[in-house]
Automatic annotation (TrEMBL):
Glutamate/phenylalanine/leucine/valine/L-tryptophan dehydrogenase C-terminal domain span: 183-416
Keyword entries, A-Z: NAD, Nucleotide-binding, Oxidoreductase
SMART domains documented for this protein: ELFV_dehydrog
Single GO BP term: L-glutamate catabolic process
Transmembrane annotation, as ranges: none
Protein name, UniProt field: Glutamate dehydrogenase
Length: 419
């Protein structure tokens, strides 16, 4: 029987370690071991067959010291309070590590979107919005897409919030369609940030990117775009997977064809054919002998049970929390580099920040401007983390937490809200 891993406990383990290395007293950071606010809501939905089903929804605000809370909303059968608490805290650290003026939040609804019609999903998203309305707002807490949510869901949330306010409020969500105030480049931003961060890292260690092999677990928004952009940079994507299958091709998969297939096939790769492609198991994908492994699906994918099988030289965490604490320590001791989630996948929230600023200005920036600014923010954050990593001799994860935690603690001191 597999162990149940608690992602919030994983977050606390790293937080305590970083706090110790920063020489923080418990008083200075104890509040950050707790969420500021945790809202659990019942979301009744009339299903297409006339039954009423009551889903459980969450919105957790971990910390708002540095600005309004920010973070995505996921629809997933395994969503629970501990998961959403961890994801909210990771948003606090992520926004601090890239130094954008936000705190951290996250939301979720425990449901199986694969078994729901679009009409049911829409009614659920609207009702959930109404239930969390008292704690969200463009100056308080701004949702965005995450697993199984996208621009369409953000548009429903924006519409519901706007209906209840009586006027259009585009700044209530980010990641919405461009036609209603979304930002150019947001859809690609998380995958772009993953690509930029990997290139920043390769630049430091002097590896040549051309012909490096890559395996990507998860082929949704983040994984498919990271795969496409890494492929465009000359890396060879030899394996991809999603919840329906995992695929391997030694010579490199045709990523554009794979993305086109997934879009036609309800975002699933099962049944995809290409000369020389093999179906493998998800476990085998994680254990492939590749240069770079990109977990881009869910938490706790690399854990005690399978960490010894990992052969990749570099793991870049496109997903939030894909590696448990035990596995992280194991990989560190083995010399496998892990580029941590709060740095590697921060591109999404950076462009969300640009979207929110554009909404406040009622102005639209062009895509080159957005991508160039994203690149600058990601580079600066990488350099800051790298410096701590080298100077303190700690893993990049601990270094990233140290950068983030010192920013949040110093903001708390400045605001005089200590402890
Ligand atoms: N969407 C965004 O802007 C951001 C997302 N993230 C994180 O990236 C990860 C992926 O999110 P999205 O791409 O947005 O979600 P998505 O819903 O677009 O894609 C998730 C993908 O993972 C696959 N998947 C699910 N379970 C799997 C399993 N056991 N094995 C292999 N594949 C599996 C799904 O089939 C799908 O292809 C999550 O951890 C999310 O929190 C992080 C930063 C921003
Ligand atoms: O774009 C955002 O506001 C947050 C995206 C997100 O949920 C994440 O970075 O995990």
């Amino acid at each position: 029987m597999l162990k149940k891993y608690n992602p919030f406990q994983n977050m606390l383990d790293v937080l305590d370690d970083a706090a110790k290395r920063l020489d923080l007293s418990e008083n200075e950071y104890i509040t950050l071991r707790h969420s500021e606010r945790e809202l659990v809501v019942s979301v009744p939905v009339v299903m297409d067959d006339g039954r009423t089903e009551v889903f459980t929804g969450y919105r957790v605000q971990h910390n708002s010291t540095r600005g309004p809370c920010k973070g995505g909303i996921r629809f997933h059968p395994e969503a629970d309070l501990d998961e959403v608490k961890a994801l909210a805290a990771w948003m606090t650290w992520k926004c601090a590590v890239v130094n954008i003026p936000y705190g951290g939040a996250k939301g979720g609804i425990k449901c199986n979107p694969a078994k729901m019609s679009e009409a049911e999903l829409k009614r659920m998203a609207r009702r959930y919005t109404a239930m969390i309305l008292p704690i969200i707002g463009p100056e308080r807490d701004i949702p965005a897409p995450d697993v199984n949510t996208d621009g369409k869901v953000m548009a429903w949330i924006m519409d519901t919030f706007s209906m209840l306010k009586g006027y259009a409020v585009p700044g209530i969500v980010t990641g919405k369609p461009v036609e209603i105030g979304g930002s150019l480049g947001r859809k690609e931003a998380t995958g772009r940030g993953v690509m930029l961060t990997l290139l920043n890292f390769l630049g430091k260690i002097g590896f040549k990117k051309e012909s490096m092999t890559v395996a990507v677990q998860g082929f949704g928004n983040v994984g498919s775009i990271a795969a496409k952009l890494l492929h465009d940079e000359g890396l060879k994507i030899v394996a991809i997977s999603d919840s329906s299958c995992a695929l391997y091709k030694k010579e490199g998969i045709n990523i554009e064809a794979a993305i086109a297939y997934s879009e036609r096939n309800n975002r699933l790769m099962a049944g995809y054919k290409e000369a020389g492609i093999e179906v493998i198991s998800n476990e085998k994908l994680l254990a492939l002998d590749v240069d770079v492994l990109v977990p881009a699906a869910l938490e706790n994918q690399i854990k005690e049970e399978n960490v010894a099988t990992i052969q990749a030289r570099i793991i870049i965490e496109a997903a939030n929390g894909p590696i448990t604490t035990y596995a992280d320590e194991f990989l560190h001791k083995k010399g496998i580099v892990v580029i941590p989630d709060i740095l590697a996948n921060a591109g999404g929230v950076v462009v969300s920040y640009f979207e929110w600023v554009q909404n406040a200005q009622s102005f639209m920036w062009d895509e080159n401007y957005i991508n160039n600014n994203l690149e600058k923010v990601m580079k600066k954050a990488f350099e800051e983390v790298w410096q701590v990593h080298i100077e303190q001799g700690v893993s990049m994860r601990i270094a990233a937490y140290m950068v983030a935690l010192s920013r949040v603690v110093s903001a708390k001191k400045l605001r005089g809200i200590f402890p």
